[in-house]
Amino acid sequence: EGVVVTQLSQIVDERGAVLHHMRNDAPEFTTFGECYFSEMVPGAVKAWKRHREQTQNLAVPVGRVRFVVFDDRAGSTTQDELLVIELGRPDDYYRLCIPKGLWYGFTCLSKIPAVVANCADRLHDPDDAELIREDDSSIPYCW
Q1: Phi-psi bin for 88: left (phi > 0), alpha (psi -120 to 50), beta?
Q2: What is the mean pLDDT of each run of 10 residues along the chain (143 residues)?
Q3: What is the pLDDT of residue 90?
């Protein structure tokens, strides 16, 4: 509940590509906090994390990444469900919007390092994030 997957525009020609990520007229856009890039080496796992207030808007312009989202929010229509989605160019260039309160993690599937772009609606605040180990048994997913 609340996760949105949006196909993103790619303008490609013989010189390269322009890759859209976020516009201020996108339905998921609320306000700008910060934009950053996270590089992952092949096979690396970054899990599990959730934010109390920050919304993530993720895209993968380089490489291929599997994202897993877990909903343990009481009363949610998707409580105790997992969403597994793979993103990357050229075929699966999408923006994944993960609202506050959901656990998420990701792994690099490509043979090259992957780049995850995040256009978050708030500045990074270490007190906003909760972290648990990637093998925590409270989330029914094995990396």
Answers
A1: left
A2: 95 94 92 96 98 98 98 97 96 97 98 98 96 97 97
A3: 87
Instruction: Sort residue 2 into left (φ over 0), alpha (ψ -120 to 50) or beta.
Output: left
Cα-flanking dihedrals φ and ψ of residue 130, to 5°?
-115, 140
pTM (two decimals)? 0.94
DSSP per-residue letters across 82-128: EEEEEEETTTB-EEEEE-TT-EEEEEE-SSS-EEEEEEESS---GGG
**100-109 residue pLDDT tens:** 999 999 999 9
